[in-house]
Amino acid sequence: MPDADHVRIEKGLGLLMKLDHSLIPNLKNLAPHWRQVSYDPGNVYSVVKDVGITGFTMRTDRVKADLRTWKDFFDFLPTAKGLTVNVIESPAEVIGVALNALGYSMNTTSDKELDAARDLLLKVRPQVTTINEVYLDDFIAGKIDLGITYSGDGLRIRAARKAQNDVRVVAPEGRSEIWTDNWAISAYAPDPVAAHAWINYILEPAVNAREMEYVQYEVGTPASYPLVGATAKDPLVVFGPRILNDYEILFTTPEGLNKRTAIWGDFKAA
């Protein structure tokens, strides 16, 4: 289940098998825009599994500010004394949203823009309490006040704290990250017919509806949405034109990753 960036990389390295569309008749159930993704137009090597965004989640009883953009988020952090702030352990994504806060693309190759993102991250580092990819339980328990989160995680936190009604999940205005996880078959798969059968099964609307209900992420089959009900009407689950048009899919290069790894080392060590 590689993400978009890894589909692009792995197909170029010959690690993925070309899909036999005759074995996946349920491809017809995919929304048109998920059949022409930038990293694999025409689903030659992959099929969208889930779609999410990178945003932030906050305790409204603790964060007394109306944060709507990544600039708002980073501008607020220096004033966040006494709050518990978590960022995800993901260099390219955290540096990416810092770039977004500055008005730049998360995929920039500009040293000047990357240096500006480094400076911004170092500026807010004193207010970052934890750097952790495993944050759900602590957020649900009320131990985190503000954090960078994936959209589905934010929705699970909000649902778990429904009684307190104190959680807001934000899809930032302007730029942020939209990401996909994908079904793909290894070039070395011992039983590719069975693998195709699995993908075809998942693309049955009723089956994919169960996936959507469980993970709280959009799936690529619109016929699943009526079966899910209210969840499918949440703009943080099924994304509208603003997010589909304005958000970016991560695109890494070895040189770009090396630069970001160096920035991340400085950030964590500060």
DSSP summary, beta strand count: 8
CATH topology of one domain: D-Maltodextrin-Binding Protein, domain 2
- Encode the helix/strand succession as letters: HEEEHEHHEHEHEEHHHHH
Q: Give a short account of the largest sheet.
A: 6 strands, mixed
What is the beta-strand fraction? 5-15%
Report how far apart the termini are: 34 Å
* Average of per-residue pLDDT values: 97
Overall form:
globular
Number of helices: 11
CATH superfamily of one domain: Periplasmic binding protein-like II
Rg calc: 19 Å
**CATH level-1 class of one domain:** Alpha Beta
User: What fraction, in percent, of the residue positions are helical?
Assistant: 25-40%
- Oligomerization status of the protein chains: single chain
Characterise the protein shown here.
The radius of gyration is 19 Å and the shape is globular. It is of the alpha/beta class. The strands form two sheets. Strands 3, 4, 5, 6, 7 and 8 form a six-stranded mixed sheet that branches. The protein has a two-stranded antiparallel ribbon with strand order 1-2. The chain has helices spanning 4-12, 70-76, 91-101, 111-124, 136-140, 151-160, 192-202, 205-215, 225-228, 241-246, 254-269, and strands at residues 36-37, 40-41, 46-59, 85-87, 130-131, 146-150, 167-170, 177-184. A hairpin with a 2-residue loop joins strand 1 and strand 2 (40-41).
Draw up the topology in text.
Layout: H1 4-12, E1 36-37, E2 40-41, E3 46-59, H2 70-76, E4 85-87, H3 91-101, H4 111-124, E5 130-131, H5 136-140, E6 146-150, H6 151-160, E7 167-170, E8 177-184, H7 192-202, H8 205-215, H9 225-228, H10 241-246, H11 254-269
Parallel strand pairs: 4-5, 4-6
Antiparallel strand pairs: 1-2, 3-6, 3-7, 3-8
Helix pairs in contact: 2-3, 3-4, 4-11
